[in-house]
Amino acid sequence: MWNVLLSFSGLVAFIQLLFLPFFPESPPYLLLQKEDKAGCLKAMKQLWGEGNYHTEFDDLMKEKAITKGTKIMNVLEVLRERSVYPQLCTMLLLLLSLQLCGLSATANLQESIIPYVSLGVSISELISIIFCSSIIDRFGRRMLLCGGYLLMALILVLLEMSLLLSDRFLWLRYCSVILIFLFIIAYGIGP
Q1: Rounded CA gap, 174 and 180, in Å?
Q2: How far are the Cα atoms of 31, 71, 73, 81 from residue 68, in angstroms, in the given order?
Q3: What is the CA radius of gyration of the chain?
Q4: How many domains is the chain partitioned into structurally?
Q5: Which of 25, 46, 72 is at the close of a domain?
């Protein structure tokens, strides 16, 4: 029944996808990135009601004034910045630990191929982090979340089908591996 357990994460993602459009965009994102003061106030009002959200808004305006002269860095500029090396090392250690996650065992592959699949899982995670960090400012968190959940749901359906049919068609085992990679990339870009 492990395939039902695997499908359960798709059900949770689908429920979140249904409710996500009813939530407002992040107020700091609207004010600091998009410079949409009216949208920020509207989102704060929707989040906190008619209560006291003006102090939060004032704090955001102060933060905007402080960061006004700072430039938003792209991925290459972040990689050249020495002050973020400890965080980058921590992130790389987490990516390398994905080799022990067990996702490669779900595809029912030969043991000699599993180390390569584990390496592919880590590379997929790295690709998703780099890709997401370069497009999040362009598309916004909401779009990436919705798109990520939709992609994840589609990939899980295809993964379930390929796992169910992998005993009849051996080539579907390799499709399962590719779908696992795509699922990790969709998760890293979206949720």
Answers
A1: 10
A2: 12, 8, 13, 20
A3: 20
A4: 2
A5: 72
Residue 20 above 60 pLDDT? yes
φ, ψ for residue 98, nearest 5 deg: -65, -15
Q: Is 140 exposed, middle or buried (0-12, 13-18, 19+ CB in 10 A)?
A: middle
Which two tokens mark 137?
């400012």
**Tens-digit pLDDT profile for residues 66-120:** 777 777 677 788 788 888 888 888 777 766 655 555 554 555 666 777 777 777 7
Q: Are 141 and 29 in contact (CB under 8 A)?
A: yes
Residues 59 and 80 in one domain: no
**Pick from 76, 105, 79, 78: nearest CA to 163:** 105
Residues 110, 168 share a domain: yes
CA distance 124 to 130: 10
Which two three-digit tokens encode residue 169?
Answer: 């068609």
Residue range of the domain that includes 46? 1-72
pTM: 0.51
Tokens of 122: 């880590």
- 177: phi > 0 → left, psi -120 to 50 → alpha, else beta; which? alpha
The C-alpha angle with vertex 154 and arms to 151 and 155, in degrees rounded to 5, equals 85
Cβ(152)–Cβ(187) under 8 Å? yes
3-class secondary-structure state, position 113: coil
| pLDDT beyond 70 at 165 | yes
